[in-house]
What does this fold into?
Amino acid sequence: MQFKTRTHTCGELRESNIGESVVLNGWVDTRRDLGGLTFIEIRDRYGVTQIVFEPQFNEEAHNLAKDLRSEFVISVEGIVRKRPEGTEHSVYPTGNIDVMVNKLIVLNEAKTPPFQIKADLDTSEDLRLKYRFLDLRRPNLQNNLMMRHKLAQTARQYFDENSFMEIETPVLMKSTPEGARDFLVPSRIHRGKFYALPQSPQTYKQILMVSGFDRYFQIVKCFRDEDLRADRQPEFTQIDLEMSFIDQDDIMGIVEGFMKRAYKEIWKKDLELPLLRLTYATAMEKYGSDKPDLRFGLEMKTLNHVFQNTAFKVFQDQVQKKGIITGMVAPGCGDYTRNQLDGLTDFAKKAGAGGLIWMRVKEDGLEAPIAKFLTPDELKNIVSELDAKTGDLVFILTGPKDKTLSIMGTLRLEMARRLELIKKDAPPKLLWVTDFPLFEWDEETKRYYAMHHMFTSPNHDDIPLLDTDIASVKARAYDLVLNGSEVGGGSIRIHDSALQSKIFKTLGITDEEAEYRFGFLTNAFKYGAPPHGGFAFGFDRLVMIFAGENSIREVMAFPKTASGISLMDEAPSTVDETQLRELHIKIR
Amino acid sequence: MQFKTRTHTCGELRESNIGESVVLNGWVDTRRDLGGLTFIEIRDRYGVTQIVFEPQFNEEAHNLAKDLRSEFVISVEGIVRKRPEGTEHSVYPTGNIDVMVNKLIVLNEAKTPPFQIKADLDTSEDLRLKYRFLDLRRPNLQNNLMMRHKLAQTARQYFDENSFMEIETPVLMKSTPEGARDFLVPSRIHRGKFYALPQSPQTYKQILMVSGFDRYFQIVKCFRDEDLRADRQPEFTQIDLEMSFIDQDDIMGIVEGFMKRAYKEIWKKDLELPLLRLTYATAMEKYGSDKPDLRFGLEMKTLNHVFQNTAFKVFQDQVQKKGIITGMVAPGCGDYTRNQLDGLTDFAKKAGAGGLIWMRVKEDGLEAPIAKFLTPDELKNIVSELDAKTGDLVFILTGPKDKTLSIMGTLRLEMARRLELIKKDAPPKLLWVTDFPLFEWDEETKRYYAMHHMFTSPNHDDIPLLDTDIASVKARAYDLVLNGSEVGGGSIRIHDSALQSKIFKTLGITDEEAEYRFGFLTNAFKYGAPPHGGFAFGFDRLVMIFAGENSIREVMAFPKTASGISLMDEAPSTVDETQLRELHIKIR
It folds into this structure.
């Protein structure tokens, strides 16, 4: 196919080009026939330009243009002219000109697409994913991926400027599962042995600190073979970093600096630093979440002190058991119907609550089914503690602390949704959550797990508690929360092999197992490991929020479905028996 | 561990800092005790600074310093002073100062390393790989990885400036093996199905062109499950790019622009453009290689025309069979002993030759075992055609064309080695090799394979030859060669689904197989595929050459051995039976 390559992109021509002879290459976007003329909008990723086929101007091109259909790929030569008065199109930057075509070459034809190539598309996501090559022509996906590119380059520039080195860590690594499942890769050369794909480059980046690289970063693919929930993908991307000879504030400062840069580049906004920091305990008490959304109020309040001497059995029990009584006001919801209140009670129960206590705030006090069990003072104190106003609705939940706070946190989000408290143009809210517990108890397996990961350092002063009260050991860990989503997290790591062994033991990992799985790391620590710590951004989610999207699939070029299928190429797929034989495996 | 974080790196202090109170963090590099004083060089990735422990200055620190050993991690506070006259050390940028220590904190101790942390190291590579965390502290590896970082950032900046978008393509993709074996990843959710790790993002980047992204690049990990040769790794990194609406010159121009930038950034050299272009045919005839090393001469010359009417049977045969007779001069080697010549004959035989014809150039003509079979004119013409001088040695090889030229090419490299023709400071030689054959014949499997890959476009004018003489179809393919290594290659792709189907058929791929393996791509081509083409750099090899190293393992943080093992963490490893059960596979 011989054709002239473009002199300009389809987003480039302006009035200053009028009279020039130009070549454009692109796709047929829309077509209109009008009074013997054919108007076509030709599109590429830079924009759209109107081209005109006029029989008097060039008959051959005009005749050829008759066959043009949507999504044909064409090359045109023509002359830029000012559009006739009244036909300008101010939406496009190219809207004041068009191109009179004197030569048309069809570079490729196109079948009729299964959906239109336009921003607002009402079709199933499955169809979009199957024809991802067409879906990706839509302006919103093009913009999202351009923004993703920009954010990645911004990150690289920023970390490079701050003396970070990008170092590639292996994709084929050792299987050390903890928490999520590893994806495995059978070895052909070593029968019965497997590589694993990294859940994160955690161990390698710590090794790089032992090696003295000091400031490492990487934008890197990670893999988790989990049952996929709505917003998870089997492969995802992290901006991963690690620093030596630092404390927590140094890392938080570097991360904040990046976010300031990103706000400026992407949102054209100034981010004020330093960011708000909430401890995990405060975030849970006030927002029922370790990733609180602060774009709206609806603060929760702990009411235990109000019921210190209550006669109401339900509250009395929790006060004694060191459970929690937490309250929240839904402003102006005092007129909710019984039906609405039942709905919210169901919502709370689905979230795990035994029940939901509600109270209508009236001129003369609280109206509620449980009011009769409480003293007038208690009722008065509820109102004053929660700063509830006439016409408001009060929710109270009680039970084991973290679980109950979480449920109220879920209800808080639900009420924000119902009351439309998050405006589309609400300023983004970015904050730190700090001082996480080092361990969390798992009811199902009846054991403690590392809340962040096993390499997280306990607070220095809490180390003695490892032997006496491990639930209250705090971690030197910190999460970055944007608009109620965790966009990243990190910690100061253990750099002492004895302390690391103690943590393994606390987690019920035997010496042999620890040696087999992490021996290379604890061994490395014996040869001069510096104090170090790091951070990792969930890059897909960060891009998603910057793009204002609700799904990470909208900011990935080729995402998979919830069951891990690529609908476009139908991976995973069956493979030849000979391939399996070479890998020494068979299917069972 | 409470410690002060550094005020300066270990490479930062100068005479202008004299008198300042500073904090340094780093590793104990060397230690000298002298007249009651202890001198230590403290090291980090930025450099080395001498610190001094003097009992009169600070007795406590001096006492503590007694226990310091190599590779201990320390934090010191002290005062910068001018070194006493005569003790300056001009090799280090910090050599005019040292730091009088008044406080020492040992951040971590270190066992004695199994080898010294220094540039010149005489130990086995296996030991270095096992203790890679220590090996990586050595200045050469630190410099190599810093350079790799710099080259990667340079690439990203360059391609970003040229409107390329970095778009991440999937690591978990569909298995479409051709040539090398895929690494497979069993699916847990879909029993009996497998993902494959990409051998390259080829199909995805072509899809991105169909989607209109126009200019794509990515620095990306690729995977090949091959039997590893010396300089291969199961995972390696490519700088991958693809462009639409372009011709071959556009792509070559973009690639040349990057190389010019890289020369400047890394080597501080100006690269003159445009680069030399050799066709595959010329490169083979003159250098016996499709990746010729032009840092030295030793050009080969085809002598068929000299022997057009020869009576010498061996040459006569090849002239008739359209084989080749190729000659090369080894300057000044006319005095090679019979022993040396036998050695070279063996060398040629090992490379696949039937034998090696040699001739000594004397004042009065050629002295050679085969001289008696040739006419005086033929002998004279050999000398004049090859421009051989008295005292030179002439080699002649004859046989099937490409094979024979390759063997002479191997001999050419061997002679360059023996004659030390490549000086250490020889200017690097970068060139293009173009006009490759589209297909190459494989003797073993008795079929044609795509020389580059199946998506490479034939020369437009050669398309009719696909039906008549496929061996002579040329590809729109081009390789970039630096100092005799292929550092990258690319091609204009087929963007027409009918032509693509024809190529599949030519390669013996049935319609069903093509549909199953590449249906998504050929299908995408039916919806408006633009003309496009691309290129991929072998990033590891490029960095290796820029670093002046002989192995890509010297420019990768965590390479694997020739049998694919990571000696540091012992991947691949055995995994739990439960993991295999979940993946529906068992070992056989």
Q: What stands out?
A: Chain B touches chain A through 124 residues (CB under 8 Å). Residues 308 and 320 of chain B are 9 Å apart (CA to CA).
